C-alpha cells in the first residue's frame, strides 16, 4: 500500500509511516462547521459545510491555516463518523459539503460519501484543493464531486519552489484543473446564484507577483477559455515571520492591475474581494476536539 495519491508520490505505507503531507491512513479533521467566508455562490444563504482536513501536500509559507500543515492537529474520524458529520451539516442548513485540503484523505472521504449518500445526504460535494493533485486522483473522485474549487497558484516555477516547495506546480495544476473541467464542465449556477456543478478556479494575488497573475490568467484563457469562472483573491495577509516580498499586504494598485488583466483577456465571470478581506479574521479556529459547529 504505497501512497501515490498526489504528485509527491512518496511511496510510503501510510499504515506505518507518514508521507510529506504528515498524514497516516487515518482521517484527521481539525474543524467541521458552517463557513461563511467562501465565494457567494459557495456560501449561499446557509453557509458552506466546511470540513477542514489536517495535513497538506504543499508548504506555502503564507498559508493562513499553517497550523494544519504538519497533519498533527485534529481528531481522528472513522468513515462512519465522517458520514454522520456530513448528515449533521445538512441538518443545520449547510448549502454543500466543502472538503478543504482533502487530497491526502481521498480514500476515507469516498467511503464516507458513499455511506452518507446511502443514509440520505443530498448536498453537493465541493472539492476545495490547492490544485496539486494527480489526474488519476481527479478521475477517482469524479463520481463523488459536484463542484471543484481548485487554486491555481503559480505559473513561475521559481515562486512555486520558493513559496510552496512544489515541484512542477504549474504543469500539475494545469493538468488536474483541465481534467476537472473535462469531468464537470464550466460552473453552473442555479436561479438563486448557488453553484450546482462545475469548476471555479481560485487565484490568490501575491505582493510583487502580479506578473505571475497575468501569466496564469493568460494560461487559463488559452487552455480553458474566458468563460471560465474565476475567483481573484485579495485576502493575502502577511504572517508574523514573513520575508520580503511577502511581508506586506497587496497594494490597491496591484489588485486593480490583476482585475485589469482579467478584463483585458476577456474574462467576465470573476469574483473579486474587498481589501478588508486581508485579515486573520477569516482564519477559522482549529482544535483536537471536533464537533459540528453551526
Ligand atoms: S498524499 Fe501524502 S503521502 Fe501520499 S503521495 Fe501525497 S504527500 Fe505523499
Radius of gyration: 18 Å
Q: Give the percentage of residues in beta strands.
A: 15-25%
Tell me the count of domains: 1
**What is the CATH C level class, in words?**
Alpha Beta
| The CATH fourth-level homologous superfamily | Aldolase class I
What does this structure look like?
By secondary structure, this protein is of the alpha/beta class. The chain has one domain (27-281): Alpha-Beta Barrel (TIM Barrel), CATH 3.20.20.70. The chain is 31% helix and 18% strand. The chain is built from eight helices and eleven strands. The chain has helices at residues 40-43, 79-91, 106-118, 135-141, 157-164, 169-184, 210-224, 252-265, and strands at residues 27-35, 48-53, 75-77, 97-100, 125-129, 147-150, 188-189, 195-204, 229-233, 270-272, 292-293. Strands 1, 2, 3, 4, 5, 6, 7, 8, 9, 10 and 11 form an eleven-stranded mixed β-sheet that branches. Helix 4 (135-141) links the parallel strand 5 and strand 6 (147-150). 43% of the residues are buried. The model has no long low-confidence stretch (mean pLDDT 95). Iron/sulfur cluster binds next to loops. Iron/sulfur cluster binds at residues 3-6, 8-10, 12, 14, 19-21, 23, 57, 104.
